[in-house]
Each structure stands twice: as structure tokens, then as C-alpha cells.
Amino acid sequence: QVQLVESGGGLVQAGGSLRLSCAASGSFFSINSMGWYRQAPGKQRELVATITSGDSANYADSVKGRFTISRDNAKNTVYLQMNSLIPEDAAVYYCNAYIFASARALFYGGADYWGQGTQVTVSS
After folding, report:
1. What angle do CA 117, 45, 24 make, to 5 degrees?
2. Which end of the chain has fewer surrounding CB within 10 Å, N or C?
3. Exposed e or buried b for every residue in 22-52, given b needs 16+ CB within 10 A?
4. What is the 3-state secondary structure (H, E, C) of the chain?
5. How far is CA 2 from CA 23, 24, 50, 52, 64, in A?
6. What gap in Å lies between CA 111 and CA 41, rounded to an integer?
7. Are 100 and 110 in contact, with CB atoms under 8 Å apart?
8. pLDDT tens across 100-111, in order?
9. From first to last of its 124 residues, what are the pLDDT tens digits of the chain?
10. How many angstroms separate the first and last alpha carbons of the chain?
11. Whole-angstrom distance, CA of residue 18 vs CA of residue 81
């Protein structure tokens, strides 16, 4: 059973910083892309940033220059460093990973896994 466990959310003042972490655990062969999504009340879940196994990163326009995604493949962990936070960044942040359960899955496809979400609140 694969699990993604997030940590690092909380309350911060506008202009402040937070660092989110998400660790994958369980039995699997490899992790392809990892990423962060967020969902604010009354809004759809949206992409924040993704990173490939080769460390190629992609960001939503709204966070470019303020957020940095990184990963530690040895620890099966993805991070999101969030700087210059604004109230509009407040949301539940979800970790995502595309994981291959076995070597055979490289041919047949992996699966998307999601964390339970961590709340980020930004006070103005």
C-alpha cells in the first residue's frame, strides 16, 4: 500500500514563508513525476508545481518566482518552498505522485496517488 504523507502546513503572515514536505512510503518500484496541487474553498483543485524524475520543474503562473519545488529521490520526498506568501495562496495543499508499483508497470502504466492534504493559511 503506497501512502503519501504531507507535513509543513500552517498559519503564516503575508510575506512569510512555509516549506511543505511529502514523503512516499510503502512498496513500489519507482516514482515518476511528483507535484503539488491546491484547493481553496469554493474553487477547483489547481496545479501549483510539478517535478519530473529528472528534476524538470513546471509552475503555475501565479506562483512562479515565489515557490520552488524540489525532490530527494533517495528519500522519496518532494518539497515545496513557498516564499512571499499572499492571502490568495491560502488553500489545502495536496501532494501527488505518479508511481510504478512494479517493473512490469513500466510497460502497463503506473497510478496516481494523493496525500491527505495540508492546510496553508495566510493572514493579511
Report:
1. 35
2. N
3. bbbeeebebbebbbbbbeeeeeeeeebbbbe
4. CCEEEEECCEEEECCCCEEEEEEEECCCCEEEEEEEEEECCCCCCEEEEEECCCCCEEECCCCCCCEEEEEEHHHCEEEEEECCCCHHHCEEEEEEEEEECCCCHHHHCCEEEECCCEEEEEEC
5. 10, 7, 19, 19, 30
6. 27
7. yes
8. 998 888 888 899
9. 899 999 999 999 999 999 999 999 999 999 999 999 999 999 999 999 999 999 999 999 999 999 999 999 999 999 999 999 999 999 999 999 999 998 888 888 899 999 999 999 999 9
10. 40
11. 6
Of 49, 46, 25, 45, nearest to 35 by C-alpha is 49
Task: Label residue 124 exposed, middle or buried (CB < 10 Å: 0-12, 13-18, 19+).
Answer: exposed
Cell of 117: 492534504
